[in-house]
Write a structure and sequence with these properties.
Elements lengths: L1 E7 L2 H8 L6 E5 L5 E2 L17 E2 L4 H12 L1 E6 L5 H13 L17 H9 L6 H28 L10 H17 L4 E11 L4 E10 L2 E2 L5 H10 L5 E13 L7 H12 L3 H13 L1 E3 L3 E3 L14 H14 L41 H16 L5 E12 L2 E12 L29 E13 L8 H10 L8 H10 L3 E4 L2 E4 L1 H13 L6 H15 L5 H23 L7 E6 L6 E7 L2 E5 L9 E3 L2 E2 L11 E5 L5 E5 L9 E2 L19 E2 L10
Parallel strand pairs: 1-2, 1-5, 14-25
Antiparallel strand pairs: 3-4, 6-7, 6-14, 7-8, 7-13, 9-12, 9-14, 10-11, 12-13, 15-16, 17-18, 18-19, 19-20, 21-22, 22-23, 23-24
Helix pairs in contact: 3-5, 5-15, 5-16, 6-13, 6-14, 8-11, 8-12, 9-11
């Protein structure tokens, strides 16, 4: 008989914990969930809203083994992950193993270290039913929405489609962003720059036209540019005001799940799913030379930026030793209002295990992500970077020019880590020579620059996660599966990191938004997350929350089904006749994109692939060029005669013209295309 049985979710986690526990202790894995709602039906009693859980198919032998191990143990500890889902898994395990609800069997730890595990075993607690109920509420609500709305899509669009409370809102955001881009009308604007020289040092710098008579002006046409150039043709350029100062840049806080996903996408090119998979491995344990299996990071599903006092001391010692005392600054980061703050930010568990020291024990992906997490954590406790700044106002008759300069004086945290952004506005800073107020500057040349406003950028995985978090849609554990699902359903596709809605995604979104506006609503989805938080805090009863939603929702679904009963989706008619019945075939959208189908279905079931032809001829033989897709859904272009008589194939559309930039000095204009990047919010 064993003294202790500890059940965790994964074998990797089990192997890491085993090395900490001597004596007669056994550690086994449940391999994730062991009970869930059935796939074949709703699985929720529509009167009582009681979930009808069943043992997951294929886990019979595992359940028998767990029961035997539990029977042979004096004490069973359920050590599943320290979040709502982990709490629910522990509750299901307790049910399977006949552990009494009042028994102190639950242990949690934010990091898999010897001290954390042993301390958790010393302080077991009862299963937290508030956390469990919050997870049950999410699971039941998502099941009701998915299983009630999806059949509407099957009837009106095609079999196999799905809708979801969070995933459909994510698709809506991407579709609406695409509509913004398609409807965007660029506006022309101009900037005027003067290259000026300080006479004594003979050093040059650039100043930008800001206004006239100290009032800001916007320039929208070449005629306006010409008028201004005419006005200042003989103007004297005088230094009107000089302001010198100091600017401090502070480090970003340690990673939350969301910020880790965003930075790994930007800096490492990792998909969100890959980031979470690699992070899971780092958390559960990696075999390190001379140390054995070690959990390298704290729990990777968190929305907290808090770190323990012990970790703070580690960081202080490390920074002062590696960089010097002036590089350390004790920092506390305030959690967002809706952050659960159940555990710490994502950080390394052992500061002495630097990325370089253990690089040989890690895979390339593990090393990259671990280094990102490690450096971000250390930098978060470092002193800010300090810049010397100078701002100069220059007067040219009635026109006001400005020049801004900055010099890095103290690098601080930037020695180690600098946060990036998807769409950053880059400020232009000049190296400005020493100037004196009232002195006259020599004009070397004047340039004008034509630009056009640009539409908001398409979402990337990183910026979509940022938006979902900002709008309160989903939680750390849901971002990755949400994006994975909508990509798998072909509602969106990823091309060179950007997320595009597919035609199928647009059709599904239109049908859902028109018929279920209250469900496909950002505000509703965010409000439900707040309700789940209240359930987790013991402030709401979960069945009451679901009941208030279910009554009106059921009525809506029934009404929609009646309204759509006689509605037929209109499909685009092609110029290809059906070879079986003669009708003109229509363009439909399937799992793998567009295809041709006979409108006489189900009497005539003819269907075939749709070959898209572009409006440019093959540059080699003059034949027609087809658009095809790789397995990863990336477009490429191929001649219809390939490979028979032409070998043309390219990633780029033939005939695509590159934008040209022309430069003309002083009396002429410089026309370039300049991005007016907007914040992706």
């Amino acid at each position: 008989m064993t003294d202790k049985l500890i059940i965790v979710e994964s074998p990797a986690k089990a192997n890491t914990i085993k090395k900490f526990l001597g004596g007669n202790t056994k550690v086994v894995a449940s391999m994730g969930h062991i009970r869930d709602l059935p796939k074949s039906k709703l699985g929720v009693d529509e009167t009582t809203l009681e979930p009808q859980y069943i043992n997951i198919r294929g886990k019979g032998d595992l359940i028998k083994s767990l029961k035997k191990d539990a029977k042979d143990a004096k004490k069973v500890y359920l050590a599943t992950d320290p979040d709502r889902e982990g709490e629910a898994i522990a509750w299901h395990l307790a049910h399977i193993l006949d552990i009494k609800p009042e028994e102190a069997c639950r242990i949690t730890f934010n990091e898999i270290t010897k001290d954390a595990v042993k301390n958790a075993i010393k302080e077991p607690r009862k299963i937290d039913m508030d956390l469990t109920d919050a997870q049950q509420a999410r699971r039941v609500l998502d099941r009701i929405v998915g299983y009630k709305i999806s059949p509407v899509l099957w009837k009106k669009v095609q079999k196999g489609l799905s809708a979801g409370r969070v995933q459909s809102v994510a698709v809506r955001l991407i579709v609406e962003r695409e509509e913004e881009i398609e409807n965007f009308k660029p506006e022309e604007y101009w900037n005027i720059y003067a290259k000026l020289k300080e006479p004594k040092s003979k050093k040059s710098f650039q100043a930008k036209l800001y206004g006239k008579n100290n009032e800001k002006i916007d320039i929208h046409s070449e005629n306006e540019v010409n008028q201004i150039l005419s006005d200042i043709e003989k103007a004297k350029y005088t230094v009107e005001e000089i302001k010198k100062g100091e600017k401090k840049r502070t480090p970003a806080p340690p990673f939350t799940t969301s910020t880790m996903q965003q930075e790994a996408s930007r800096k490492l090119g990792f998909a969100i799913k890959k980031t979470m998979s690699v992070a899971q491995g780092l958390y559960e344990g990696v075999k390190i030379a001379e140390k054995g299996t070690v959990g390298l990071i704290t729990y990777m599903r968190t929305d907290s930026t808090r770190i323990s006092e012990e970790a703070r001391r580690w960081a202080k010692d490390y920074i002062e030793k590696e960089y010097g005392a002036e590089y350390y600054e004790n920092r506390y980061y305030k959690a967002k209002g809706d952050a659960q703050d159940a555990h710490e930010a994502i950080r390394p568990t052992y500061v002495e295990l630097s990325p370089e020291k253990i690089k040989s024990s890690l895979t390339n992906d593990q090393y990259k992500l671990y280094k990102l997490i490690y450096n971000r954590f250390i930098a978060s406790q470092m002193a800010g970077a300090i810049y010397d700044t100078v701002s100069v106002k220059i007067l040219a008759d009635k026109y006001n020019f400005r020049a801004n300069g900055q010099t890095l004086k103290f690098k601080g945290f930037m020695t180690l880590y600098v946060e990036t952004s998807d769409f950053e506005e880059k400020e232009e800073f000049e190296k400005i020579p020493e100037l004196i107020e009232g002195q006259e500057l020599k004009k070397e040349k004047i340039e004008s620059k034509q630009s056009f406003t640009e539409p908001p950028p398409r979402y990337t995985e990183a910026s979509l996660v940022k938006t979902l978090e900002e709008k309160g849609i989903g939680r750390p554990s849901t971002y990755s599966p949400t994006i994975t699902t909508i990509l798998a359903r072909r509602y969106i596709e990823k091309i060179q990191k950007q997320l595009y809605p597919t035609e199928l995604g647009k059709i599904v979104n239109k049908l859902l938004v028109e018929n279920f506006p209250n469900i496909l609503n950002v505000k509703f989805t965010a409000e439900m997350e707040e309700q789940f938080d209240k359930i987790a805090d013991g402030k709401e009863e979960w069945k009451k929350v679901i009941k208030e939603f279910y009554g009106p929702f059921k009525t809506t679904v029934e009404n929609v089904e009646k309204e759509l009963e006689h509605v037929k989706l209109e499909y685009e008619v092609s110029d290809v006749p059906c070879e079986k019945c003669g009708r003109m075939m229509v363009i439909k959208y399937g799992k793998y994109g567009k295809f041709l189908a006979c409108p006489g279905y189900p009497e005539c079931q003819n269907a075939k692939p749709l070959v898209e032809i572009i409006d440019k001829p093959c540059p080699k033989c003059g034949g027609k060029v087809q658009i095809r897709k790789t397995k990863k859904r990336r477009n490429y272009y191929i001649c219809e005669n390939n490979p028979a008589s032409c070998d043309y194939i390219s990633w780029n559309k033939p005939g695509a013209e590159k934008k040209e930039t022309t430069k003309r000095k002083t009396a002429t204009k410089k026309k370039t295309t300049k991005k007016n990047k907007k914040d992706n919010k």
